[in-house]
Amino acid sequence: MTAAPQIHASPHGLVGGRAVRRSVAFLLTGEGIGYAGSAVHAVALPALAVLSLEANPGQVALLAFAAEIPALVVALPAGVVVDRYPLRTVLFSTDLAAAALVGVIPAAAVLDRVSMPLLYTVALALGVLSTLHTAASMAAVPLLAEPKHLHRANARFTAVITIAGTTGTALGTVLVATIGATRAFAADALSYLVSAWCAARIRALPSPDHPQTARRPAIREIREGVTHSASHPILRPLFQALTVTGIGTGLTATLLSYHLLTAVQVGATGLGVIMAAGSIGGLSGALTAPRLVRRYGTGRVIACAWTVYALMQIPPLAARPGTAWLAILVVSGYGQWAAATCVGTTQRSVQQRTTPPRLRARVQQTSLWLTTGTQPLAALAAGALASFTSVRTVMTAGVIVLFISTWMLWRSPVRRLTALDGGAQ
Protein backbone atom coordinates (compact mmCIF):
# COMPACT_ATOMS: atom_id res chain seq x y z
CA MET A 1 0.00 0.00 0.00
CA THR A 2 1.31 3.44 -0.91
CA ALA A 3 2.14 5.79 1.93
CA ALA A 4 -0.23 8.59 2.79
CA PRO A 5 0.52 12.13 1.62
CA GLN A 6 2.87 13.94 3.95
CA ILE A 7 3.39 17.54 4.96
CA HIS A 8 6.73 18.62 6.32
CA ALA A 9 6.53 19.17 10.06
CA SER A 10 8.31 22.50 10.04
CA PRO A 11 9.66 24.91 7.46
CA HIS A 12 12.47 26.22 9.65
CA GLY A 13 15.07 24.05 8.01
CA LEU A 14 13.99 25.24 4.57
CA VAL A 15 13.72 29.01 4.92
CA GLY A 16 15.20 31.72 7.05
CA GLY A 17 13.63 33.10 10.19
CA ARG A 18 12.85 36.42 8.54
CA ALA A 19 10.83 34.71 5.81
CA VAL A 20 8.87 32.83 8.47
CA ARG A 21 8.11 36.01 10.41
CA ARG A 22 6.94 37.76 7.25
CA SER A 23 4.75 34.80 6.37
CA VAL A 24 3.23 34.78 9.84
CA ALA A 25 2.51 38.50 9.55
CA PHE A 26 0.81 38.05 6.17
CA LEU A 27 -1.16 35.05 7.45
CA LEU A 28 -2.49 36.93 10.47
CA THR A 29 -3.20 40.10 8.48
CA GLY A 30 -5.00 38.24 5.73
CA GLU A 31 -7.03 36.14 8.14
CA GLY A 32 -8.01 39.18 10.16
CA ILE A 33 -9.21 41.10 7.10
CA GLY A 34 -10.94 38.07 5.59
CA TYR A 35 -12.65 37.18 8.85
CA ALA A 36 -13.87 40.75 9.19
CA GLY A 37 -15.35 40.43 5.71
CA SER A 38 -17.12 37.24 6.73
CA ALA A 39 -18.61 39.06 9.70
CA VAL A 40 -19.87 41.79 7.34
CA HIS A 41 -21.80 39.39 5.15
CA ALA A 42 -23.07 37.56 8.27
CA VAL A 43 -24.85 40.84 9.07
CA ALA A 44 -25.71 41.83 5.50
CA LEU A 45 -27.27 38.52 4.36
CA PRO A 46 -30.11 38.37 6.91
CA ALA A 47 -30.55 42.15 6.70
CA LEU A 48 -31.00 41.92 2.93
CA ALA A 49 -33.43 39.04 3.35
CA VAL A 50 -35.57 40.87 5.90
CA LEU A 51 -35.37 44.47 4.66
CA SER A 52 -35.51 43.93 0.91
CA LEU A 53 -37.22 40.58 0.46
CA GLU A 54 -39.44 40.67 3.56
CA ALA A 55 -38.34 37.17 4.59
CA ASN A 56 -40.30 35.48 7.36
CA PRO A 57 -38.64 33.93 10.45
CA GLY A 58 -38.60 30.48 8.86
CA GLN A 59 -36.74 31.78 5.81
CA VAL A 60 -34.23 33.62 7.98
CA ALA A 61 -33.64 30.44 9.99
CA LEU A 62 -33.15 28.47 6.78
CA LEU A 63 -30.65 31.08 5.58
CA ALA A 64 -28.66 30.68 8.81
CA PHE A 65 -28.84 26.90 8.47
CA ALA A 66 -27.51 27.09 4.89
CA ALA A 67 -24.50 29.07 6.13
CA GLU A 68 -23.76 26.65 8.98
CA ILE A 69 -24.43 23.20 7.51
CA PRO A 70 -21.11 23.07 5.53
CA ALA A 71 -19.35 22.73 8.89
CA LEU A 72 -21.05 19.35 9.22
CA VAL A 73 -20.76 18.21 5.60
CA VAL A 74 -17.44 19.65 4.42
CA ALA A 75 -15.25 19.71 7.55
CA LEU A 76 -13.90 16.16 7.20
CA PRO A 77 -13.19 16.31 3.43
CA ALA A 78 -11.49 19.68 4.05
CA GLY A 79 -8.82 17.89 6.04
CA VAL A 80 -7.99 15.76 3.00
CA VAL A 81 -7.92 18.82 0.73
CA VAL A 82 -5.39 20.69 2.86
CA ASP A 83 -3.26 17.54 3.07
CA ARG A 84 -3.17 17.17 -0.72
CA TYR A 85 -2.74 20.73 -1.94
CA PRO A 86 -0.39 23.60 -1.00
CA LEU A 87 -1.95 25.59 1.82
CA ARG A 88 -1.12 28.89 0.16
CA THR A 89 -3.03 27.75 -2.93
CA VAL A 90 -6.06 26.80 -0.84
CA LEU A 91 -6.00 30.11 1.02
CA PHE A 92 -5.58 32.16 -2.14
CA SER A 93 -8.16 30.32 -4.25
CA THR A 94 -10.88 30.27 -1.58
CA ASP A 95 -10.45 34.01 -1.01
CA LEU A 96 -10.75 34.74 -4.72
CA ALA A 97 -13.79 32.49 -5.03
CA ALA A 98 -15.43 34.18 -2.04
CA ALA A 99 -14.77 37.63 -3.54
CA ALA A 100 -16.43 36.57 -6.78
CA LEU A 101 -19.34 34.98 -4.93
CA VAL A 102 -20.26 37.97 -2.78
CA GLY A 103 -19.96 40.13 -5.88
CA VAL A 104 -22.92 38.24 -7.30
CA ILE A 105 -25.27 40.00 -4.86
CA PRO A 106 -24.65 43.60 -6.06
CA ALA A 107 -24.73 42.40 -9.67
CA ALA A 108 -28.06 40.65 -9.09
CA ALA A 109 -29.41 43.81 -7.41
CA VAL A 110 -28.55 45.88 -10.49
CA LEU A 111 -30.47 43.37 -12.60
CA ASP A 112 -33.30 43.19 -10.05
CA ARG A 113 -32.74 39.45 -9.61
CA VAL A 114 -32.13 39.20 -5.86
CA SER A 115 -34.21 36.38 -4.39
CA MET A 116 -34.23 34.06 -1.39
CA PRO A 117 -33.02 31.06 -3.47
CA LEU A 118 -30.04 33.20 -4.54
CA LEU A 119 -29.29 34.12 -0.92
CA TYR A 120 -29.55 30.47 0.14
CA THR A 121 -27.10 29.52 -2.60
CA VAL A 122 -24.63 32.26 -1.71
CA ALA A 123 -24.82 31.44 2.02
CA LEU A 124 -24.24 27.75 1.34
CA ALA A 125 -21.33 28.33 -1.04
CA LEU A 126 -19.70 30.84 1.29
CA GLY A 127 -20.03 28.31 4.10
CA VAL A 128 -18.19 25.72 2.02
CA LEU A 129 -15.41 28.15 1.11
CA SER A 130 -15.11 29.33 4.70
CA THR A 131 -14.76 25.75 5.94
CA LEU A 132 -11.99 25.02 3.44
CA HIS A 133 -10.23 28.32 4.12
CA THR A 134 -10.36 27.91 7.90
CA ALA A 135 -8.97 24.38 7.61
CA ALA A 136 -5.99 25.70 5.63
CA SER A 137 -5.32 28.69 7.88
CA MET A 138 -5.42 26.62 11.07
CA ALA A 139 -3.18 23.96 9.50
CA ALA A 140 -0.67 26.68 8.57
CA VAL A 141 -0.08 27.79 12.17
CA PRO A 142 1.93 24.75 13.38
CA LEU A 143 3.95 24.81 10.14
CA LEU A 144 5.05 28.39 10.73
CA ALA A 145 5.48 28.35 14.52
CA GLU A 146 8.41 26.90 16.40
CA PRO A 147 7.25 24.00 18.61
CA LYS A 148 8.02 25.86 21.83
CA HIS A 149 5.95 28.84 20.65
CA LEU A 150 3.01 26.86 19.23
CA HIS A 151 0.53 27.75 21.96
CA ARG A 152 1.41 31.44 21.74
CA ALA A 153 0.97 31.31 17.94
CA ASN A 154 -2.48 29.73 18.32
CA ALA A 155 -3.36 32.36 20.92
CA ARG A 156 -2.38 35.19 18.57
CA PHE A 157 -4.34 33.58 15.74
CA THR A 158 -7.45 33.38 17.93
CA ALA A 159 -6.95 36.94 19.15
CA VAL A 160 -6.75 38.25 15.59
CA ILE A 161 -9.95 36.56 14.44
CA THR A 162 -11.73 37.61 17.64
CA ILE A 163 -10.88 41.27 17.02
CA ALA A 164 -11.73 40.88 13.34
CA GLY A 165 -15.10 39.31 14.12
CA THR A 166 -16.06 42.12 16.46
CA THR A 167 -14.84 44.80 14.04
CA GLY A 168 -16.52 43.15 11.08
CA THR A 169 -19.85 42.86 12.88
CA ALA A 170 -19.75 46.53 13.85
CA LEU A 171 -18.65 47.52 10.34
CA GLY A 172 -21.36 45.40 8.77
CA THR A 173 -23.99 47.05 10.95
CA VAL A 174 -22.74 50.52 9.98
CA LEU A 175 -22.54 49.66 6.28
CA VAL A 176 -26.05 48.20 6.20
CA ALA A 177 -27.39 51.29 7.97
CA THR A 178 -25.55 53.82 5.79
CA ILE A 179 -25.15 52.39 2.28
CA GLY A 180 -27.56 49.46 2.38
CA ALA A 181 -27.15 45.69 2.61
CA THR A 182 -26.54 45.23 -1.11
CA ARG A 183 -23.63 47.69 -1.31
CA ALA A 184 -22.14 46.22 1.86
CA PHE A 185 -21.27 43.13 -0.18
CA ALA A 186 -18.96 45.25 -2.34
CA ALA A 187 -16.87 46.08 0.75
CA ASP A 188 -17.00 42.39 1.63
CA ALA A 189 -15.58 41.46 -1.77
CA LEU A 190 -12.74 43.95 -1.31
CA SER A 191 -11.80 42.36 2.03
CA TYR A 192 -11.49 38.95 0.37
CA LEU A 193 -9.30 40.37 -2.39
CA VAL A 194 -6.95 41.89 0.20
CA SER A 195 -6.89 38.59 2.06
CA ALA A 196 -6.04 36.78 -1.19
CA TRP A 197 -3.14 39.18 -1.78
CA CYS A 198 -1.84 38.44 1.73
CA ALA A 199 -2.15 34.70 1.10
CA ALA A 200 -0.07 35.03 -2.06
CA ARG A 201 2.71 36.64 0.02
CA ILE A 202 3.03 33.68 2.42
CA ARG A 203 6.32 32.21 1.18
CA ALA A 204 7.42 30.03 4.08
CA LEU A 205 4.76 27.32 3.88
CA PRO A 206 6.12 23.99 2.59
CA SER A 207 4.31 22.13 -0.16
CA PRO A 208 2.71 18.76 0.55
CA ASP A 209 4.38 15.71 -0.91
CA HIS A 210 1.47 14.36 -2.92
CA PRO A 211 2.43 12.50 -6.11
CA GLN A 212 -0.62 11.35 -8.04
CA THR A 213 0.23 7.69 -7.47
CA ALA A 214 0.28 8.20 -3.70
CA ARG A 215 -3.31 9.37 -3.41
CA ARG A 216 -5.79 7.06 -1.79
CA PRO A 217 -9.59 7.36 -1.73
CA ALA A 218 -10.64 10.39 0.29
CA ILE A 219 -12.92 8.32 2.49
CA ARG A 220 -9.96 6.18 3.56
CA GLU A 221 -7.93 9.23 4.51
CA ILE A 222 -10.87 10.70 6.43
CA ARG A 223 -11.28 7.39 8.26
CA GLU A 224 -7.60 7.42 9.18
CA GLY A 225 -7.93 10.81 10.86
CA VAL A 226 -11.12 9.82 12.67
CA THR A 227 -9.62 6.50 13.78
CA HIS A 228 -6.53 8.20 15.19
CA SER A 229 -8.73 10.65 17.10
CA ALA A 230 -10.90 7.85 18.46
CA SER A 231 -7.97 5.70 19.60
CA HIS A 232 -5.63 8.30 21.08
CA PRO A 233 -5.78 8.29 24.92
CA ILE A 234 -5.88 12.11 25.12
CA LEU A 235 -7.72 13.08 21.96
CA ARG A 236 -10.56 10.60 22.41
CA PRO A 237 -11.91 11.99 25.72
CA LEU A 238 -11.11 15.54 24.63
CA PHE A 239 -13.13 15.16 21.44
CA GLN A 240 -15.98 13.44 23.27
CA ALA A 241 -16.24 16.41 25.63
CA LEU A 242 -16.03 18.83 22.68
CA THR A 243 -18.89 17.04 20.93
CA VAL A 244 -21.15 17.25 23.97
CA THR A 245 -20.15 20.90 24.40
CA GLY A 246 -21.14 21.62 20.80
CA ILE A 247 -24.60 20.22 21.47
CA GLY A 248 -24.99 22.17 24.69
CA THR A 249 -23.79 25.39 23.06
CA GLY A 250 -26.23 24.91 20.19
CA LEU A 251 -29.12 24.60 22.63
CA THR A 252 -28.13 27.66 24.68
CA ALA A 253 -26.71 30.09 22.11
CA THR A 254 -29.45 29.69 19.48
CA LEU A 255 -32.11 31.29 21.65
CA LEU A 256 -29.91 33.49 23.84
CA SER A 257 -30.46 36.80 22.02
CA TYR A 258 -34.20 36.17 21.78
CA HIS A 259 -34.35 35.36 25.49
CA LEU A 260 -32.36 38.44 26.49
CA LEU A 261 -34.44 40.74 24.32
CA THR A 262 -37.86 39.37 25.30
CA ALA A 263 -37.72 37.90 28.80
CA VAL A 264 -34.85 39.96 30.24
CA GLN A 265 -35.62 43.10 28.18
CA VAL A 266 -32.01 44.23 27.83
CA GLY A 267 -32.83 46.15 24.64
CA ALA A 268 -30.67 46.46 21.55
CA THR A 269 -28.13 48.62 23.36
CA GLY A 270 -27.85 46.22 26.27
CA LEU A 271 -27.44 43.27 23.93
CA GLY A 272 -24.69 45.15 22.10
CA VAL A 273 -22.89 45.87 25.39
CA ILE A 274 -23.08 42.19 26.37
CA MET A 275 -21.74 41.13 22.97
CA ALA A 276 -18.92 43.68 23.18
CA ALA A 277 -17.98 42.37 26.64
CA GLY A 278 -17.90 38.88 25.17
CA SER A 279 -15.53 39.99 22.43
CA ILE A 280 -13.19 41.61 24.95
CA GLY A 281 -13.36 38.45 27.02
CA GLY A 282 -12.52 36.33 23.99
CA LEU A 283 -9.45 38.45 23.31
CA SER A 284 -8.36 38.28 26.96
CA GLY A 285 -8.81 34.53 27.15
CA ALA A 286 -6.79 33.88 24.02
CA LEU A 287 -3.88 36.10 25.04
CA THR A 288 -3.66 34.92 28.67
CA ALA A 289 -4.01 31.18 27.96
CA PRO A 290 -0.28 30.52 27.32
CA ARG A 291 0.68 32.29 30.54
CA LEU A 292 -1.90 30.31 32.53
CA VAL A 293 -0.68 27.04 31.04
CA ARG A 294 2.93 27.82 31.97
CA ARG A 295 1.89 28.55 35.55
CA TYR A 296 -0.81 25.95 36.25
CA GLY A 297 -0.40 23.23 33.63
CA THR A 298 -2.33 22.35 30.48
CA GLY A 299 -4.89 19.95 31.93
CA ARG A 300 -5.82 22.14 34.87
CA VAL A 301 -6.31 25.20 32.66
CA ILE A 302 -8.50 23.29 30.18
CA ALA A 303 -10.63 21.73 32.93
CA CYS A 304 -11.07 24.94 34.92
CA ALA A 305 -11.83 27.07 31.86
CA TRP A 306 -14.30 24.44 30.67
CA THR A 307 -16.06 24.65 34.03
CA VAL A 308 -16.15 28.45 33.92
CA TYR A 309 -17.69 28.30 30.44
CA ALA A 310 -20.54 26.15 31.75
CA LEU A 311 -21.03 28.29 34.87
CA MET A 312 -21.27 31.48 32.82
CA GLN A 313 -24.39 30.11 31.10
CA ILE A 314 -26.36 30.25 34.36
CA PRO A 315 -26.79 34.06 34.82
CA PRO A 316 -28.84 34.48 31.59
CA LEU A 317 -31.27 31.84 32.88
CA ALA A 318 -31.69 33.55 36.25
CA ALA A 319 -31.68 37.12 34.91
CA ARG A 320 -34.61 39.47 35.26
CA PRO A 321 -35.14 42.97 33.84
CA GLY A 322 -33.03 45.63 35.54
CA THR A 323 -29.71 47.44 35.51
CA ALA A 324 -28.13 45.17 38.13
CA TRP A 325 -28.85 42.09 36.08
CA LEU A 326 -27.49 43.79 32.97
CA ALA A 327 -24.19 44.34 34.79
CA ILE A 328 -24.14 40.67 35.80
CA LEU A 329 -24.82 39.62 32.20
CA VAL A 330 -21.93 41.78 30.98
CA VAL A 331 -19.59 40.00 33.41
CA SER A 332 -21.09 36.66 32.37
CA GLY A 333 -20.56 37.40 28.68
CA TYR A 334 -16.96 38.38 29.33
CA GLY A 335 -16.28 35.25 31.36
CA GLN A 336 -18.00 32.94 28.92
CA TRP A 337 -15.92 34.01 25.94
CA ALA A 338 -12.70 34.34 27.93
CA ALA A 339 -13.12 30.70 28.98
CA ALA A 340 -14.12 29.61 25.47
CA THR A 341 -11.04 31.05 23.75
CA CYS A 342 -8.77 29.86 26.56
CA VAL A 343 -10.06 26.32 26.03
CA GLY A 344 -10.01 26.67 22.26
CA THR A 345 -6.40 27.78 21.89
CA THR A 346 -5.11 25.33 24.51
CA GLN A 347 -6.91 22.22 23.29
CA ARG A 348 -5.97 23.02 19.67
CA SER A 349 -2.32 23.20 20.71
CA VAL A 350 -2.71 19.84 22.47
CA GLN A 351 -4.10 18.38 19.24
CA GLN A 352 -1.23 19.70 17.18
CA ARG A 353 1.49 18.57 19.59
CA THR A 354 0.09 15.05 20.07
CA THR A 355 -0.68 14.28 16.41
CA PRO A 356 1.82 13.18 13.74
CA PRO A 357 2.25 15.91 11.10
CA ARG A 358 0.80 13.74 8.32
CA LEU A 359 -2.49 13.41 10.27
CA ARG A 360 -2.60 16.86 11.82
CA ALA A 361 -5.01 18.50 9.35
CA ARG A 362 -7.40 15.55 9.35
CA VAL A 363 -7.45 15.35 13.15
CA GLN A 364 -8.01 19.11 13.31
CA GLN A 365 -10.99 18.79 10.98
CA THR A 366 -12.35 15.85 12.94
CA SER A 367 -12.40 18.12 15.98
CA LEU A 368 -14.18 20.91 14.11
CA TRP A 369 -16.66 18.45 12.63
CA LEU A 370 -17.57 17.16 16.09
CA THR A 371 -17.98 20.63 17.61
CA THR A 372 -19.17 23.13 14.99
CA GLY A 373 -20.84 20.43 12.91
CA THR A 374 -23.21 19.48 15.71
CA GLN A 375 -24.28 23.05 16.41
CA PRO A 376 -26.60 23.57 13.40
CA LEU A 377 -28.41 20.35 14.25
CA ALA A 378 -28.64 21.40 17.89
CA ALA A 379 -29.93 24.80 16.75
CA LEU A 380 -32.72 23.14 14.76
CA ALA A 381 -33.54 20.99 17.77
CA ALA A 382 -33.61 24.07 19.99
CA GLY A 383 -36.16 25.76 17.76
CA ALA A 384 -38.35 22.67 17.62
CA LEU A 385 -38.20 22.04 21.38
CA ALA A 386 -38.95 25.68 22.18
CA SER A 387 -42.22 25.43 20.26
CA PHE A 388 -43.33 22.57 22.52
CA THR A 389 -41.85 23.72 25.84
CA SER A 390 -40.28 27.14 26.43
CA VAL A 391 -37.11 29.03 25.60
CA ARG A 392 -35.94 28.91 29.21
CA THR A 393 -36.48 25.14 29.34
CA VAL A 394 -34.41 24.56 26.21
CA MET A 395 -31.60 26.76 27.46
CA THR A 396 -31.66 24.99 30.83
CA ALA A 397 -31.29 21.67 29.02
CA GLY A 398 -28.31 23.12 27.16
CA VAL A 399 -26.64 24.17 30.42
CA ILE A 400 -27.14 20.66 31.84
CA VAL A 401 -25.51 19.22 28.73
CA LEU A 402 -22.56 21.59 29.18
CA PHE A 403 -22.06 20.42 32.76
CA ILE A 404 -22.13 16.82 31.54
CA SER A 405 -19.26 17.65 29.18
CA THR A 406 -17.40 19.29 32.07
CA TRP A 407 -17.89 16.18 34.20
CA MET A 408 -16.61 14.02 31.33
CA LEU A 409 -13.48 16.14 31.04
CA TRP A 410 -12.67 16.13 34.76
CA ARG A 411 -12.86 12.32 34.76
CA SER A 412 -10.56 12.01 31.74
CA PRO A 413 -6.75 11.91 31.44
CA VAL A 414 -6.88 15.38 29.86
CA ARG A 415 -7.00 17.11 33.24
CA ARG A 416 -3.70 15.45 34.22
CA LEU A 417 -1.73 17.00 31.34
CA THR A 418 1.06 19.07 32.84
CA ALA A 419 2.56 20.95 29.89
CA LEU A 420 2.42 21.36 26.15
CA ASP A 421 5.55 19.37 25.60
CA GLY A 422 6.57 16.24 23.80
CA GLY A 423 6.24 15.36 20.19
CA ALA A 424 3.59 13.57 18.27
CA GLN A 425 2.42 10.40 19.86
Q: How is this structure best described in words?
A:
This protein is an all-alpha fold. Helices cover 78% and strands 0% of the residues. It has helices at 17-51, 57-68, 70-73, 75-84, 87-102, 104-110, 116-144, 150-178, 181-200, 218-231, 235-253, 256-262, 267-296, 298-311, 314-318, 323-354, 360-371, 374-388, 391-410. The radius of gyration is 21 Å and the shape is globular.
Q: How far is the N terminus from the C terminus? A: 23 Å
> Which class do the helix and strand fractions yield?
mainly alpha
Count every helix, treating DSSP H or I runs of 4 or more residues as helices.
19
Radius of gyration: 21 Å
Q: What is the overall pLDDT average?
A: 84
Q: Percentage of helical residues?
A: over 70%
Tally of DSSP β-strands: 0
Beta content: under 5%
Q: Any low-confidence stretches, pLDDT <50, length ≥5?
A: 1-16, 421-425
How would you sum up the major sheet?
none
The shape, in one word, is globular
SSE run: HHHHHHHHHHHHHHHHHHH
Structure summarized in a few sentences:
The protein is mainly α and 425 residues long.
Jot down its keywords.
425 residues; 78% helix; mainly alpha; 19 helices
How do the strands and helices of this protein lay out in sequence?
Blueprint: H1 17-51, H2 57-68, H3 70-73, H4 75-84, H5 87-102, H6 104-110, H7 116-144, H8 150-178, H9 181-200, H10 218-231, H11 235-253, H12 256-262, H13 267-296, H14 298-311, H15 314-318, H16 323-354, H17 360-371, H18 374-388, H19 391-410
Helix pairs in contact: 1-2, 1-7, 1-8, 1-9, 2-7, 4-7, 4-10, 4-17, 5-7, 5-9, 7-17, 8-9, 8-13, 8-16, 10-11, 10-17, 11-18, 11-19, 13-14, 13-16, 14-16, 14-19, 18-19
